[in-house]
Write a structure and sequence with these properties.
7-stranded mixed β-sheet, Thioredoxin-like_sf, alpha+beta, 33% helix, Glutaredoxin, two-stranded antiparallel ribbon
């Protein structure tokens, strides 16, 4: 289980100014896919992550990527997804450390009260489904089908703090 990060932690979007986490969750929960653009494993999950994020895009969860890279590297890695979804950069892995993540990619649900009721590391469809189900129940939204045809087979993530 991931840890609740400090609400004073600065989240830096690709567009706009960095703001404390507490400001990002004032109105919406955060449904974050945390990725490392320097690994194949994070690239393997982009299509699936995008599909899941689209499912929750109009809900009371603010879907987003947290990319462990600079803004330029995040844009290069995500391509059009960088502007399609809210994207934060975490080149120093401050958020990753505070969440206590051991493997990336990860799928983390952060409620507006600052708690983390569900998280999954690596690509384990059953674990990602549990996170999605927790989000859906919290925001009274429909659940995405996980896994779906075309999703990759399960795989272990890469070290989050490498």
């Amino acid at each position: 289980m991931a840890n609740a990060p400090s609400l004073d932690t600065q989240l830096t979007p690709l567009v706009g100014d960095a703001r404390p986490l507490r400001e990002w969750i004032t109105t919406f929960h955060l449904a974050s896919v945390v990725i490392d653009p320097y690994t194949n494993e994070s690239s393997w999950i982009l299509k699936t992550a995008s599909r899941i994020m689209h499912q929750f895009a109009d809900s009371a969860a603010r879907v987003n990527f947290i990319v462990t890279a600079t803004p330029a590297e995040a844009k290069q890695f995500l391509g059009p997804l960088a502007t399609e979804f809210l994207t934060f950069t975490d080149p120093e892995r401050v958020v990753v450390k505070q969440l206590g993540l051991a493997e990336l990619p990860a799928f983390v649900f952060l409620r507006s009260d600052g708690t983390v009721p569900a998280a999954a590391e690596g690509w384990n469809p059953a674990a990602w489904r549990e996170v999605a189900n927790t989000i859906a129940e919290t925001v009274a939204w429909s659940k995405p089908l996980i896994p779906q045809a075309g999703d990759p087979g399960a795989f272990k993530g890469t070290p989050a703090l490498a």
